[in-house]
Amino acid sequence: MSRFEKHIFICENKRESEHPKGCCSDKRSEETILLFKNLIKEFGLKKKVRINRSGCLDAYEFGLSMVIYPEQI
Hints:
The structure is a single chain. This protein is an alpha+beta fold. It has one domain (6-69): Glutaredoxin (3-Layer(aba) Sandwich), CATH 3.40.30.10. Helix content is 19%, strand content 22%. It has 1 helix and 3 strands. It has a 3-stranded mixed sheet, with helices on one face. Helix 1 links the parallel strand 1 and strand 2. The longest helix has 14 residues, at 29-42. The two termini are 26 Å apart.
């Protein structure tokens, strides 16, 4: 089995509603994860691209956070 060419990590971190930092879970992370998984399948990329759920990526102030490896973007 070959390794994936790309890994996309999407934050699904959940904090209390009154937390000053907020959280990606409140920014529709679950829907985004499912959308990405469906698109990867639709475009026939399941053997090349892997979608992973992640904890906090420390970029929540910009919106829903994700990172793509190996590029680290």
